[in-house]
């Protein structure tokens, strides 16, 4: 069985590994010169079931509206003429009710817990090294009011099996001494001891090597221009090298999935949401954190990868634009210096911006389409690193005709 995976990001490479383990002959096609050079390249690095809340919440519309007039909002809306963005935004707003938020969050946390278990099994089986730290994550609050809201909101995650704990400021600093200088800025935190961090790009590169040992072929610098169908079957994909044929095809192109699928008549509810990251070198005189986490008031995440410290922030609805300027990182850098004033060399940043392939609900699209040999593994949003091994395993089960191990309601093409 010849399987062709379109996309060499973390969703595509994990899918390739699980399919190759099934004995399939797998080819991965990507337009870039290597794996994980898009969304997976410099993301937050948090494997975080403890942060599985959907972005479509009752508070989101007000934040998006405010972003049109006030700088520094965690969610930003940049007006443009793309009709696909406006259709997606309307779908997003329909999910911003308390009930839909509860349902979508419950589905996300179930998937994320399952996916983390798959990630741990895969990493152990292949002895993958990716600067992993598995001592939990901190979700930090700056004031008592937001801490109270966070504590109340965490009930839905605890109800879905996560062992969350609340910490006061002294307990936070005891857990993460690098936050000592910010003690007076901290009201408390929610600690998830089972959450982790690790470099998704390093993981994907290491997994590529493992895939190659299983016989997976990678075709880089090979953009897909179109998918050719005959009736209800995919014949092949068009590339500059010609038509690549196969017996089955997996669409794992992230934010570009709906563009390719549109030519087959699909309207995938996936749209890019831009995020920013800044990575700093850590020297012997710095005091970086050991635990990753999120500054919930500013929605700035941090994680340490060996001798690097990364901060990520912002969800910007701006289409397919990945340009950035130093001004885009102002809020992020301010939070970094406040929380960890001696954490890294903040004068030597590496800036990056990437596109998260989001669905309005926040859950990905996995599995079958109306073409009997075309499958989806896309729309992972801001949790792609956390979800990747789980969605790949679910996909492999579906393609093999097995019953998926979790309920996939809300994760399939309607």
Question: What is the topology?
Answer:
Layout: E1 2-6, H1 10-21, E2 25-29, E3 46-47, H2 60-67, E4 75-77, H3 83-94, H4 98-126, E5 137-141, H5 144-153, H6 155-159, E6 165-168, H7 169-175, E7 188-192, E8 196-197, H8 200-213, E9 217-219, E10 226-230, E11 233-239, E12 242-245, E13 248-251, H9 257-262, E14 271-281, E15 292-295, E16 300-305, E17 308-317, H10 330-339, E18 350-358, E19 365-368, E20 374-378, H11 384-399
Parallel strand pairs: 1-2, 1-13, 2-9, 4-17, 5-15, 13-20
Antiparallel strand pairs: 3-8, 5-7, 6-7, 10-11, 11-12, 14-17, 14-18, 15-16, 16-17, 19-20
Keywords: Oxidoreductase
GO molecular function, one term: oxidoreductase activity
EC number: 1.4.99.-
Commentary on this structure:
This protein starts with a strand and ends in a 15-residue tail after the last helix. The protein has a single domain, classed as 3-Layer(bba) Sandwich (FAD/NAD(P)-binding domain). The mean pLDDT is 95. By secondary structure, it is an alpha/beta fold. It is 31% helix and 25% strand. A hairpin with a 2-residue loop joins strand 10 and strand 11.
CATH level-4 homologous superfamily: FAD/NAD(P)-binding domain
CATH hierarchy: architecture: 3-Layer(bba) Sandwich
**What separation lies between the terminal Cα atoms?**
27 Å
Radius of gyration: 21 Å
Number of helices: 11
The CATH class assignment is: Alpha Beta
Q: Give the helix proportion (percent range).
A: 25-40%
**pLDDT below 50 for ≥5 consecutive residues: which ranges?**
none
CATH topology (fold) name: FAD/NAD(P)-binding domain
Q: Given the C-alpha coordinates, what overall shape results?
A: globular
Structural class, from helix and strand content? alpha/beta
Question: What's the number of extended β-strand segments?
Answer: 20
Q: Please state the average pLDDT score.
A: 95
Strand content: 15-25%
């Amino acid at each position: 069985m010849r399987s062709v995976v379109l996309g060499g990001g973390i969703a595509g490479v994990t899918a390739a590994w699980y399919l190759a383990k099934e004995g399939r002959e797998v080819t991965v096609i990507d337009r870039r010169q290597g794996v994980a050079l898009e969304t997976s390249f410099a993301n937050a690095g948090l494997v975080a079931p403890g942060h599985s809340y959907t972005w479509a919440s009752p508070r989101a519309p007000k934040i998006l509206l405010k972003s049109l007039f006030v700088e520094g909002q965690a969610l930003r809306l940049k007006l443009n003429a793309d009709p696909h963005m406006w259709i997606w935004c309307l779908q997003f707003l329909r999910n911003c009710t308390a009930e839909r938020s509860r349902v979508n969050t419950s589905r996300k946390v179930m998937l994320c817990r399952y996916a983390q278990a798959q990630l741990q099994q895969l990493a152990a089986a292949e002895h993958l090294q990716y600067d992993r730290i598995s001592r939990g994550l901190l979700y930090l609050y700056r004031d008592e009011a937001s801490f109270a809201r966070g504590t109340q909101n965490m009930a839905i995650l605890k109800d879905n099996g996560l062992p969350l704990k609340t910490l006061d400021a002294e307990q936070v600093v005891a857990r993460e001494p690098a936050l000592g200088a910010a003690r007076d800025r901290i009201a408390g935190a929610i600690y998830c001891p089972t959450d982790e961090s690790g470099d998704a790009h390093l993981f994907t590169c290491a997994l590529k090597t493992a895939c190659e040992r299983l016989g997976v072929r990678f075709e880089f610098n090979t953009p897909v221009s179109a998918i050719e169908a005959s009736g209800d079957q995919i014949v092949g994909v068009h590339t500059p090298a010609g038509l690549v044929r196969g017996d089955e095809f997996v669409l794992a192109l992230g934010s570009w999935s709906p563009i390719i699928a549109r030519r087959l008549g699909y309207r995938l509810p996936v749209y890019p949401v831009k995020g920013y990251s800044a990575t700093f070198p850590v020297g012997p005189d710095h005091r970086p954190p050991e635990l990753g986490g999120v500054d919930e008031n500013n929605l700035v995440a941090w994680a340490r990868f060996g001798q690097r410290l990364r901060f990520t922030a912002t969800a910007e609805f701006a289409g397919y634009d990945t340009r950035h300027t130093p001004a885009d990182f102002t809020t992020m850098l301010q939070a970094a210096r406040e929380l960890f004033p001696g954490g890294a060399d903040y004068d030597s940043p590496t800036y990056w911006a990437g596109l998260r392939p989001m669905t309005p609900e926040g859950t990905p699209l996995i599995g079958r389409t109306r073409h009997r040999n075309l499958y989806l593994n896309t729309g992972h949003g801001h949790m792609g690193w956390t979800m990747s091994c789980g969605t790949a395993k679910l996909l492999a089960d579906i393609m093999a005709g097995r019953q998926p191990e979790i309920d996939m309601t809300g994760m399939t093409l309607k």
